[in-house]
Design goal:
Blueprint lengths: L4 E3 L2 E3 L3 H16 L10 H25 L8 H9 L10 E10 L3 E3 L4 E4 L6 E3 L4 E3 L6 E6 L8 E5 L2 E5 L7 H13 L4 E6 L4 E6 L8 E3 L3 E17 L9 E6 L4 E6 L12 H11 L7 H12 L5 E7 L13 E7 L3 H11 L5 E3 L2 E6 L5 E6 L3 E13 L9 H14 L13 H7 L3 E11 L20 E4 L5 E5 L2
Parallel strand pairs: 18-19, 22-24, 22-25
Antiparallel strand pairs: 1-2, 3-14, 3-16, 4-7, 5-6, 5-15, 6-14, 8-12, 8-14, 9-10, 9-13, 11-12, 17-18, 20-21, 22-23
Length: about 475
């Protein structure tokens, strides 16, 4: 193999001084004089300029070589290199919040509708596609009696299930609403309350994320209806807001009365950086894999917005396994993302005859219009509180913001953990040392709980085993940085 050019170690280019030395050696041998004696000679000026252009060609060749591989390419070249394997750079995306919108039945919401958070600063959300507040897709509704008549049925039909009350004699609207309330309370899917002052029957779905279709007999109508409508943030990125924070109607139809966010959101993102693309390339490269689990994981990561982690598992035996998976089934544990989009990726890539396992149930349409049930799981969060004791170096000072640097490094490394990955603090040390100079020794201990509101009663863990259906998470507020010396 040659010393320069394409070698066993990759590309080795000639430096400017090497090129100049070779040219001077050739000229000196050919002319019989030492051309290096006078650095200010015209010949040396010519050699220097020509050598510089040759060195640029070597660098161009190395740049072309590097641009062919995802590990070394940058920018557009990185995009082009990744396309050979299938993955592409994730573009900037908005965050999507399912919003409980309340108004008069049939209220149209066009794309000029704007709502906002009650936080400071305010965050605006827009409607990308027209929608309607309607009883045909409701999560909550206030029902009232239109007309009274004895021996006439008052019926509420929800997704084909009838709740019908027929008074035996002359009765009041309050009695009718109370009768319907008792029928609805027997259902595990709804709660019902009667406002005796305003004569309204409030129906609320137990599952705040689910929508139902309601049909009423002519003697009943709705006062208000609450439909779940997806709004997008005006800005790209992961816009995180607490529950019930989006309550302001900036612009909308007059019959659009109120709104709030009660459902989990779909996280947006900024455009993927080169570093992030190189990391995700390794996960997404299996998009064209013939192995089912790798293909499913890669497809979900690449095609479903807001997904933070995917862990696929398979039981290929004829017996139920220790995790409760049926024979010849797969279980996909997904953190983040829309349930229906995730189910679509699983259905498209799972093999025929392989069942799915999990608590999240989504019915997908089959090729011939039949319903296909896809199941998967969401991870249980294991929250980690950490104490980081550091000893200051005697030869290098700590930066003033050392605590913030350490916390950010730990949170960044924790975010990289997948479902089922154990917490091993020793694996964080390199990131801490790289982020914060001036440290000679690090001692990390932990407290963990599945309750985010828990209070640490001591940091006695050196590591934590995470099960297949769990994911370890932390935040800067859960990390304590102390100077031990």
């Amino acid at each position: 193999m040659p010393e320069y050019g394409i070698t066993e170690r990759g590309v080795n280019i000639k430096r400017l001084d090497t090129i100049m030395d070779e040219i001077h050696t050739g000229l000196s041998d050919g002319w019989g004089v030492n051309t290096r004696l006078n650095p200010k000679s015209k010949l040396n000026v010519l050699v220097t300029n020509f050598s510089d252009k040759v060195a640029e060609l070597w660098e161009l060749g190395k740049g072309i070589y590097d641009s062919m591989y995802p590990s070394s390419a940058e920018g557009i070249s990185l995009d082009n290199a990744c396309q050979f394997g299938g993955p592409v750079r994730e573009t900037a995306a908005r965050s999507y919040y399912p919003i409980h919108c309340t108004g008069v039945d049939g209220t149209p919401l066009d794309t000029s509708t704007i709502i906002a958070s009650a936080t400071n600063p305010q965050t605006n959300f827009v409607l990308l596609n027209p929608a309607t507040i309607t009883r045909s897709s409701f999560n909550r509704a206030a029902v009232k009696v239109v007309s009274m008549a004895s021996t006439t049925a008052y019926t509420v039909s929800i997704d084909g299930t009838l709740f019908s009350y027929t008074p035996a004699k002359e009765t009041s609207a309050l009695d009718v609403l109370s009768g319907l309330q008792k029928l609805l309370e027997a259902s595990e899917e709804f709660t019902a309350t009667v406002d005796s002052e305003n004569l309204l029957l409030s129906i609320e779905a137990v599952d705040e994320t689910k929508s139902y279709a309601m049909i009423l007999t002519e003697n009943l109508t709705t006062e208000t209806v609450t439909s779940i409508i997806n709004f997008a943030s005006e800005q790209n990125g992961d816009i995180v807001l607490p529950y019930e924070a989006i309550t302001n109607i900036v612009q909308g139809h007059a019959d659009f009365q109120r709104c709030t966010n009660l459902c989990p959101y779909i996280a947006g993102r900024q455009e993927e950086t080169d570093r992030e693309l190189r990391k995700s390339y390794a996960d997404k490269i299996f998009n064209r894999s013939s192995r089912m689990l790798e293909s499913i994981r890669s497809a979900i990561l690449q095609n479903v917005q807001g997904v933070k982690s995917v862990a696929p598992y398979e039981n290929d035996t004829n017996e139920w396994d220790s995790y409760g998976r049926p024979p010849h089934s797969i279980e996909i544990v997904v953190d983040g993302g829309d349930a229906r989009e995730i189910a679509g990726q699983i259905l498209a890539r799972k093999s025929g005859g392989i069942s799915t396992h999990g608590d999240e149930v989504v019915k997908m349409p089959g090729e011939y219009g039949e319903d296909i049930t896809i199941r998967f799981n969401r991870p249980t969060y294991v929250y980690a509180w950490m104490r980081v004791g550091i000893t200051q170096s005697t030869v290098e000072d700590l930066p003033l913001n050392y605590a913030d640097r350490i916390k950010k490094a730990i949170v960044s490394r924790m975010d990289e953990l997948n479902c089922g990955d154990d917490i091993v603090p020793q694996k964080f040390l390199d990131a801490i040392y790289a982020a914060c100079p001036g440290i000679s020794y690090i001692d990390m201990t932990m407290f963990t709980s599945t309750d985010e509101a828990a209070t640490p009663d001591g940091y006695d863990l050196r590591s934590k085993t995470i099960s297949a259906r769990e994911r370890a998470v932390t935040s800067e507020t859960m990390i304590e940085v102390a100077l031990d010396g």
